[in-house]
Write a structure and sequence with these properties.
This protein has 389 residues and is an alpha+beta fold. The protein has 13 helices and 20 strands. The chain is 40% helix and 27% strand.
Length: 389
């Protein structure tokens, strides 16, 4: 078998890349380790930047998002019983779209099915080979049979634990990492959101976030120590903690109910440099991770795909390698700014008892400055709605 571009991973990065390449007439095959149902069962991000919304439009998969997604003009930061509203629309002229990663992935999967695209699910032992030559190839196993696919390029869209980054020889890659001593315990429940906008809270007990997926489906998170067992937190205990951390106004309005999903995500900042090794490219979580506080993980995956898809389309259409040659540098410039913002939002809004009293005062000063300065709020808003591609 042969294809022009072999894509490893059918998460949002891989499927968006495949969709954009297909629209431009570039041939590709996606190789995914899991089943479609498994991929859709992972509850993750919920906030889309305008740039990502534009890419979903370009990919022809935005119709349901525009119908069912919730445009948000602002969000709140709550400290104790004080709330500061960040007026995204007023400060930047832009807004964000609340629409779950699961829905984005489902829309992309449906578009792939509709056009009969090649996505090989439950492909085992996918291995990128010979990407340091002009003849890269992929091998994988399916139903006990080994297959080989020759290609021009391999795109590693297989997430943080994927095989693509791991296939790069030691010494060719530099990794930058910061691990936080806590995670986010997330809960999904069919209850009305506590407010029409998101609330990010810093409380002495730890961070909390009130988010949503629709007017009847809420998503909440609380900071928990690293290594916490999710089974130690009953639904009732989580609701009680959310009421404490989100403040009295939210507590009075909060609807509670049984969880339909409950999981813990560790927090990490990570960047691999560069993002290209011969004919292998890394995109999305395969190349970088941000802590979720700034809602940047999914959006960064989309901006990588913007640079990578346009480079590959230019390569096949105009016979120019300029776009793919610049991919790593262009993508990393934007990635590091999102890393900075996500680290800063995380530092502002979480409890770090191990960092002591000085750090706590710095956090307080940062918050006071934000509350008193429109310039500081505009800087936050500009980053939150997404820096230009
Ligand atoms: P992924 O979504 O990880 O997709 C990679 C795909 O590759 C997967 O389908 C995987 O099965 C497949 N794969 C892996 N290994 C192989 C292999 N060897 N062979 C073939 N296929 C393989 N971001 C936010 O902004 N807000 C959040 O609240 C948030 N919560 C998160 C919670 C968790 C638990 C995680 C892990 C991430 C979260 N993120 C969040 C980040 C966001 O979801 C990611 O940035 C986004 O999923 C990146 O998309 P991706 O396609 O690059 O990677
Ligand atoms: C959600 C996740 C985030 O990381 C965030 O900053 C905002 C919302 C969510 O899952 O809804």
């Amino acid at each position: 078998m042969r294809t022009q571009v072999a894509i490893i991973g059918a998460g949002p990065s891989g499927l968006l890349l495949s969709q954009l390449l297909h629209k431009a007439g570039v041939d590709c095959i996606v190789f995914e380790r899991r089943s479609p149902d498994y991929v859709l069962s992972r509850i993750r991000a919920g906030v889309l930047e305008q740039g990502m919304v534009g890419m979903l439009e370009q990919a022809g998969v935005s119709e349901r998002m525009h119908r069912e997604g919730l445009p948000h003009d602002g969000f709140a930061i709550s400290v104790g019983d004080t709330r500061l509203r960040i007026d995204l629309k007023g400060l930047t002229g832009s807004r964000v779209m609340v629409y779950g990663q699961t829905e984005v992935t489902k829309d992309l999967m449906d578009a792939h099915t509709a056009r009969g695209a090649q996505v090989i699910y439950e492909a085992e032992n996918v291995t990128p080979l010979d990407f340091d030559t002009d003849h890269p190839r992929i091998t994988y196993e399916k139903d006990g049979v080994t297959h080989e696919v020759a290609c021009d390029f391999i795109c590693g869209c297989d997430g943080y634990h994927g095989v693509s980054r791991a296939a790069v020889p030691d010494g060719a890659i530099t990794e930058f990492e910061k691990v936080y001593p806590f995670g986010w315990l997330g809960i999904l429940s069919y209850v009305k959101p506590v407010d029409h906008e998101l609330i990010y809270a810093n409380h002495p007990n730890g961070f909390a976030l009130a988010s949503m997926r629709s007017e009847t489906l809420s998503r909440y998170y609380i900071q928990v120590p690293a290594g916490t067992d999710v089974n130690k937190w009953s639904d009732d205990a989580i609701w009680a903690e959310l009421k404490v951390r989100l403040g009295a106004e939210a507590a009075a309005k909060m609807e509670t109910g049984p969880s339909i999903e409950k999981s813990i995500a560790p927090l990490r900042s990570f960047v691999a440099e560069p993002l290209r090794f011969g004919r292998l490219f890394l995109a999305g979580d395969a190349g970088h991770i941000v802590p979720p506080t700034g809602a940047k993980g999914l959006n960064l995956a989309a901006s990588d795909i913007h640079y990578l898809s346009s480079g590959l389309i230019e390569y096949y259409g105009e016979k120019s390698a300029a776009g793919i040659d610049a991919y790593s540098q262009h993508a990393l410039a934007r990635i590091w700014k999102a890393e900075r913002f996500s680290w800063w939002m995380t530092s502002l809004l979480h409890q770090f008892p191990e960092l002591g009293a000085f750090n706590a005062r710095m956090q307080q000063a940062d918050m006071d400055y934000l509350a008193s300065s429109e310039a500081a709020q505009r800087s936050l808003a500009e980053n939150y709605v997404g820096l230009p591609f």
